[in-house]
Amino acid sequence: MPAIAPLPPLTAIPRDVVAVADYLPHARLRLDDNAWAYLSGGAADELTDRWNREAFDYQRLHSRVLTSLAGGHTRRDLFGQVFDHPILLAPVAYQRLFHPEGENASALAAAVTGSGLVLSTLSSTPLETIAKIQTGPTWFQLYLQGDRTFDLALLRRAEAAGYQAIVLTVDAPLTGLRNREQRAGFHLPPAVTAVHLAGFTPPRPPQLQPGQSALFDGLLAQAPGWADLEWLRQSTRLPLLVKGILHPADALRALELGADGIIVSNHGGRTLDTLPATLDALPAIATAVAGRCPLLLDGGIRRGSDVFKALALGASAVLLGRGYIHGLAAAGALGVAHVLRTLREELEAVMALTGCPTLDAIGPHCLFDAP
Question: Is 0.70 topped by the overall pTM?
Fold first, then answer.
């Protein structure tokens, strides 16, 4: 348990922090129970969150020796954008819950490490501010609000600010609190708000008729559907990725409607528990998509070897979530930058020891148990 008053953020990286997982206890000591409940809360028994991690642990690597590694690098081209490495910061809401500088600190860390960043609709910092800080590839994650006029205005703001892709999250039609958050009585502090939704009034659910379901006919009446993806595709020329895909049929449907990329994600188990680990779902989606679009993956990334394994099973890049937020909570921009640098250096080491000088050399043959 943390002290009654959370400790202030670190100003230097402790000597005992040598891996991303080492940030967790330091983050816990610097967050109150309210912020910790939001960050670590999952649905029900949090099995999906555990399976995300275990899926990486179960995969074993093939080592290779005496391989020429001259000219090796971690660069990746996605949608005409050059990434120094295939590790992006995932969209995480309300980052001022975890550090006073919030998304500003994450954007600064992304800029100094040459990392991609995906900003959440539920950011506690305006998208225009982040676009001025982040010098690398910057994408905007969109939660549709059930009001196309409002959604289009937010989309146009992202385009005008120079965001280079739109990420539509489709696996969270219900935004109710998870179990741990409920037990902790989670609430947003007055100083932390979803700044992009300021002044927006959500559409009212329709009045229920006798026999109708409060969930299906009420709360979900404005939930996004395939028609909304089609509308969004027609509304922007930016690359459009769909985040929250776990089934090959859904991946194919998204491609049919114009998606440029798929993000294999289970929301860390925060919306529905006992979903499969994203790494376990990835191969079937990769087979179905058959190289027609880039696949990205999130969920459970803590080591450079995790990044390597995801790429070996078909991902083009990965998104890091809780791991970098632990760094943010512990040490602000310094912590996030250290997390990103650590993962990149670990990835490079794994590539060298498996005989892969470039990301394109990584494939199923690099995994001991792959067919």
Answer: yes
Is the domain spanning 20-65+73-173+191-196+225-366 CATH 3.90.930.12? The answer is: no
Q: What is the rounded average pLDDT for all residues in the chain?
A: 91
- Asked whether the predicted pLDDT for residue 312 surpasses 90, the reply is yes
Q: Which of 267, 326, 338, 365 is catalytic?
A: 267
Residue-range domain boundaries for the chain? 20-65+73-173+191-196+225-366
Annotated catalytic residue 85: no
Q: Which residues, in sequence order, are bridge partners of residue 356? A: none
Per-residue pLDDT reduced to its tens digit, 9-29: 999 999 999 999 999 999 999
Mean pLDDT of 319-344: 98
Q: How far apart are CA 28 and CA 209, in angstroms?
A: 47
Q: State both tokens at 103.
A: 């998304």
Q: Residues 178, 179, 182, 183: what is their CA dihedral angle, to the nearest 10 degrees?
A: -150
The pair of structure tokens assigned to 148 is: 């196309």
Other Cβ atoms within 10 Å of 18 Cβ, number: 11
